[in-house]
Amino acid sequence: MVERIDDTDLTALLKAASDPTRRAILTLLAQQGAMRVTDLARHFEVSLNSVSKHIKTLESAKLVSRRTEWREHLIELNPDRLAHIDTWFKDLQSIWALRLEKLEKLMTKDDAHD
Amino acid sequence: MVERIDDTDLTALLKAASDPTRRAILTLLAQQGAMRVTDLARHFEVSLNSVSKHIKTLESAKLVSRRTEWREHLIELNPDRLAHIDTWFKDLQSIWALRLEKLEKLMTKDDAHD
DNA sequence: GCATTATTCACCCTTATGGTTGAACGAATA
DNA sequence: TATTCGTTCAACCATAAGGGTGAATAATGC
Question: pLDDT of A74-106, one tens digit each?
Answer without folding.
Answer: 999 998 898 888 888 889 999 999 998 888 888
